[in-house]
Amino acid sequence: MAQLQQPKFVYMGGKLRLWHEAALHVGCEAVIRGLNVFEGVKGYWQQDGRFAFIMLRRHYERLRRSARLLHIPCDWTFEAYEGAILELVSQLVEPGRDMWARTTLFVVDGHWGENTVSDLVITAYHQSKEPPQPINLGVSTWRRSPDVALPARIKTSSNYQVSRLARIEGRAQDCQDMVLLNQSGRVAETTGACILMVREGVVYTPPAGEGALESITLDLVEALAQSMGIPFVRRPIDRTELLVADEMAVCGTLAELPLVRKFQGMPLSETSPILKALQKRYFDAVRGVDPHPAVELSVLPAQVAANSK
Ligand code: PMP
């Protein structure tokens, strides 16, 4: 598990610090109210030997949107954000392993929305290069909170309390991830990814208005599907549709694109031709095996990548 690693450095307060020195004060709003917004970003070794993060500008833009919605100041430019990630990762990257970084704006000063001060903290973890294994998916009794309560559109840690409860529930059912339904009982997303369902040759996913995060991976998968001639439609999905789907997968930056092997204990087709093809196209695109214009790269300086080999 990525979260259990303790890498040597953390980026905090505008510079690199040792892991055990990267601490927040017990009195700050980040601690007492869980006040932060964040992005998980993924870096891949490329076929040509470079190391690059993907879609950083999109993540930066979503971080700013989340911060705006929670009245958290974000005075970072894209260039500074990208530079901070690459500075940290250049100290940690290793041959043979990809990386996932969590970039978090913690509220370190201020109270109830007055005098709010944030700090960008970046932690980065090693990741296996192996493609994800198929998963068992269930449906949680916990639901995605509505837009008028804690909007799914805001990527803030508080939103993941329900994901944590659903994962605990799922573990008892031998499920690696769980579907969260929205307040109307339709499909929203999973605890940390979006849902893809295939029926009669068409890929469907619920729109963000159904209670899903505005996913960057989903936009990328849609672009890949379009260039492969696979129809891709965003529309509300009922739970029973998942039970009769021909193929199913989830997608997200960290999850990547695992197929669903069993849904609510019922096996899905092992062939999954459409989603398997999309999965292959995804990995070929993010690793530069078969580049696609929708994949934006932030490349680590060549010297750093060469030294880590
Ligand atoms: N939904 C949730 C709840 C998530 O945590 C994630 C992962 N960030 C996603 C969807 C997928 O979003 P993205 O493709 O931008 O990573």
Please give a handful of descriptors for the protein shown.
globular, five-stranded mixed β-sheet, 16 strands, single chain, five-stranded antiparallel β-sheet, 309 residues, alpha+beta, binds 4'-deoxy-4'-aminopyridoxal-5'-phosphate
Write the layout of secondary structure elements.
Layout: E1 9-12, E2 15-18, H1 29-32, E3 36-45, E4 51-54, H2 56-69, H3 78-92, E5 98-111, E6 114-127, E7 135-143, H4 160-171, E8 177-181, E9 187-190, E10 194-199, E11 202-205, H5 216-228, E12 232-234, H6 239-243, E13 247-251, E14 260-263, E15 266-267, H7 273-286, E16 297-299, H8 302-307
The chain binds 4'-deoxy-4'-aminopyridoxal-5'-phosphate.
What would you say about this model in short?
The chain has 309 residues and is an alpha+beta fold.
Provide the residue-averaged pLDDT: 96
Give a short account of the largest sheet: 5 strands, antiparallel
Gross geometry: globular
Within the largest sheet, what's the order of strands? 6-5-3-4-16
- Low-confidence parts, pLDDT < 50 over ≥5 residues? none
Q: Spell the H/E element sequence.
A: EEHEEHHEEEHEEEEHEHEEEHEH
Per DSSP, the total helix count is 8
Report strand %: 25-35%
Distance between the termini: 23 Å
In total, the number of strands is 16
What is the helix content? 25-40%
Cα-based radius of gyration, to the nearest Å: 19 Å
Structural class of the secondary structure composition? Answer: alpha+beta
Q: What ligands does this structure carry?
A: 4'-deoxy-4'-aminopyridoxal-5'-phosphate
